[in-house]
Amino acid sequence: MTNSATKSAIVTGASGGIGGAIARRLAKDGFFVVVNYAGKPAPAEAVVADLKAAGGQGIAVQADVAIAADVERLFKESMDAFGKPDVVVHCAGIMPLFPIASGDVTAFDKVLATNLRGTFLVFAQAAQHVLDGGRIMAFSSSVLAKSFPTYGAYIASKAGVEGLVHVLANEMRGRNITVNALAPGQVETELFLKGKSDARIDELKKMNPLERLGQPEDIANVVSFLAGPEGGWINSQIVRPNGGFAY
Questions:
Q1: pLDDT band at 8, cuts 50/70/90?
Q2: 22 and 220 in contact (C-beta within 8 Å)?
Q3: pLDDT at 3
């Protein structure tokens, strides 16, 4: 199935709202897309079905990004199907919220394992396998600028992600590979809306001057730009598609 004339992309966490939108957009842009998921296969398989229905190509590959052997297998299966990737978008992450005073080290370790260790492991494989001239992207969050209570573990993990982005960008010197992170604000996904009242959602909308929640497609559009030829001069940056929520 490998075709050297065809671009390919790996998207982790691609069965969710933002990751799924990114997978669909990159397929529209002409990429063969590897749809990574950690848990149940059905949502990822639904994304792959969408890609194929729209004339694209994709496969679903299960892997827990916190497990080194899983990440190595993700890249191997991806390359067996579509060759070395042109683009890697690391979207997988978790966001359990709890106060620092709780001392919940088990929850803290889980957040860092998925969000920070996972980024390190995906970056390590991407650095080895992404084609020269390619793109590597991770996800941070605009909440870093807000320091909201209960976000301590999540913010700590994403601050670490931003540090890795800058270092890997320097380590890719000579290969014309860009390394960036996206730091979205509030995005209207099923996960984000769960458990929130209409009144709370209205409050969240008004936190940015555009007075709306972001859509998964808003984030996918930025990924598309960074992955395309016009995004080649953007490197070692934290790009903030957040409607003005934080800067």
A1: very high
A2: yes
A3: 45
Q: Residue 37 catalytic?
A: no
Q: What is the mean pLDDT of residues 181-205?
A: 89
Unique residue bearing structure tokens 């992170």: 181
Structure tokens at 17: 């709202």
The letter for the amino acid at 192 is F
Active-site residue (options: 37, 151, 154, 247): 154
How many Cα atoms are found within 13 Å in the side-chain-facing hemisphere of 112? 11
Q: How distant, in Å, are the alpha carbons of 142, 144, 205, 214 from that of 154?
A: 11, 9, 21, 20
Quote the CA–CA distance of 4 and 7 in Å, as a whole number.
8
Listed residue (231, 222, 241) closest to 25, CA to CA:
222
Q: Helix, strand, or coil here: 64? A: coil
* Among 39, 27, 25, 82, CA closest to 15: 39
* DSSP secondary structure letter of residue 109: H
Q: How far is Cα 89 from Cα 98, in angstroms, rounded to an integer?
A: 28
Which residues face 238 on adjacent strands?
Answer: 181
Q: For residue 90, what pLDDT band results from cuts at 50, 70 and 90?
A: very high
Q: How far apart are CA 62 and CA 74, in angstroms?
A: 7
Q: What is the tens place of the pLDDT at every residue in 67-77?
A: 999 999 999 99
Residue with tokens 């936190």: 207
Q: Are 5 and 29 in contact (CB under 8 A)?
A: no
Tokens, residue 182: 């996206």
Q: Is the pLDDT of residue 49 over 90?
A: yes
Q: Which residue has the higher pLDDT, 203 or 132?
A: 132
Structure tokens at 164: 């890795």
Distance CA 176, CA 170 (A): 11
